[in-house]
Amino acid sequence: MDTQELATRILAGERRALARAITLVESGRDDHRAQSVDLLERLAGSGRQALRIGLSGTPGVGKSTFIESFGMMLTQQGLKVAVLAVDPSSARSGGSILGDKTRMERLSRAPNAFIRPSPSQSALGGVARRTRDAVSLCEAAGFDVILIETVGVGQSETMVADMTDLFILLLAPAGGDELQGVKRGIMEMADIILVNKADGDLKSAAMRTCADYAGALRLLRKRAQDPEGFPKAMTVSAMEEAGLEIAWGEMQALAHWRRENGHFDSRRADQARHWFEEEVRLALLARLERDPEVKAQMGALGQEVAQGGTSVSGAVAQMLAHLRK
Predict the structure, then answer these.
(1) Nearest to 293 by CA among 254, 325, 258
(2) Whose CB has fewer CB within 10 Å in the chain, the N or C terminal residue?
(3) pLDDT at 260 exceeding the cut of 50
(4) Residue 196: burial class (beta carbons within 10 Å; 0-12, 13-18, 19+)
(5) Which of 158, 99, 96 is nearest to 126 (CA)?
């Protein structure tokens, strides 16, 4: 593959080239990894930036419906929108359904939209390991807004906040104690909470849920990167496309304030440093796992632990002592 030609085509905004490049960066083959690194280096100086928005929410909250309605609204305003949807992979087979594109039928046909579902594989945190590389490719291709849809809410879903400019938490109207539905950790990461399905019989329940979360957000510690009034909770209806323009206005206002006050660029710099350190850790771990001597020692200690001959902590201490030799 000619990475120079591929880079030129991506900078020209060719969707087919972008799709091929994302496939390349997601590959685990050593030769493909070398090519993807070369490609990303060639695109690093493009200077193009998009507004990166992370979206997470409980299963059944209507993430795909929201993204389609929200994305259609943005494309109608003349913006180019990329959607990177992460599907959970099977722990048994490793496969994923990757059905997000079929659930966003209108948006998938929009000329200014690009939808790419990817398997989470073994990565935790609600996003695939190479999602950040895919974001860089979409920025180089000239997209204005990049929406990253995570697997779903859980205690490890906060990783998306480390690669986006805004983190949106999507919730549905619920009965009983709504605040028990989401862990505090993900609430602390959210910039805006959107209560979806605020229509029909659920409208009053959505208003109550929104009020509950607005009260809970006021109890959280003030963050330096937030202006007055943020983070905030709002109601939307993806089905009736109500409240989407107001929500978009709030997202733009928050991003603008962060740019004006220096938080936007410093946050991106911190994120880049974080992902550099994370990639180094993963690369070192992969190198150790391929070392025959390390694999033999791991196997031997694992057998001892399985037979009850040593504790897990003791085996770890022995393994670390072996690596220091």
Answers:
(1) 325
(2) C
(3) yes
(4) buried
(5) 158
